[in-house]
Amino acid sequence: MCEYNCKTFIFSSSAAVYTLKEKPIVEDDNVGPGNPYGRTKLMIEQILKDLYYSDKQWKISILRYFNPVGSHSSGLLGDASKNPTNLLPVIHLTAAKKRETLPIFGNDWDTHDGTGVRDFIHIEDLAEGHVCSAEHLISKDCEGGVCYTHNLGTGKGTSVLEMVNIFEEVSGVKIPIKHMPRREGDLGSVIANPQLAHKQLNWKAKRDIKDACVSAWKWHTMNIDGLY
Q1: Which residues are in the NAD-dependent epimerase/dehydratase domain (predicted)?
Q2: Pick the catalytic residue: 4, 37, 65, 228?
Q3: Which of 23, 71, 75, 192 could cysteine-pair with 218, CB 3.0–4.6 Å?
C-alpha cells in the first residue's frame, strides 16, 4: 500500500472486542475479548492505531460489527456455511430440514421472553456503513489523517424467539426448537449504541429483522440445490 501511496484503510472489526455488558455499548467502553476471535480483532485494531501514530498521513476506519444477518435482497449472495454458528443461518438450515431442531441456549434470561437479545444488523446496512466510512475518509473532514472507531449496529435488540417467529411468518415453515442450558460466557442482552456513526458518518441502519429474514429465505429458496 505504501508503494502506491495508498494510506486509506477500513478494518472489519467486531463487538467481540468489548468486555460485554447489558447496557448499549459505546465505542469507549472497556475492551476485553473473551475468545480468540475477539482477541485477534483487538490485536489488529492496536496494530492499526500504532501505524497511525507512527505516520499520521494514514486515514484508518475501524468498524465494529454487532450481529450481521440476512442476504443480499437480489437473492444472489448469502451465507452458504454448512456448519454455521450464527442464528439466522441455523434457522434456515432447520427450516430446510437439514437440522432436526434449533437449539436455544437459555430461556430464563432477564429479557421480555426469557431468550437472549442481540443487535442484529442487515448485511446491506453493513455494506452501506462501509461506503459511508470510505466517503468520510476521503472527505475534507479527514485531511491530515485520522484513526477512528465506530459501532455498526441498529441500537435495537431482537430476541431469539422473536427472530424465530418472524422467520416462520415470512417462510411459512414451522421451526422446531429445543431449549438448552445457558452457555458459559453468554449474556442476556448485547446491543450497540450506534450514535457516533450516525453523527460522524451520516450512516444509520434502515432495514429491520423482517427484511433480514425475507432476504435470507429468498436466497435459500433460489439456491437450495447448490447449498448443502
Answers
A1: 2-136
A2: 37
A3: 75
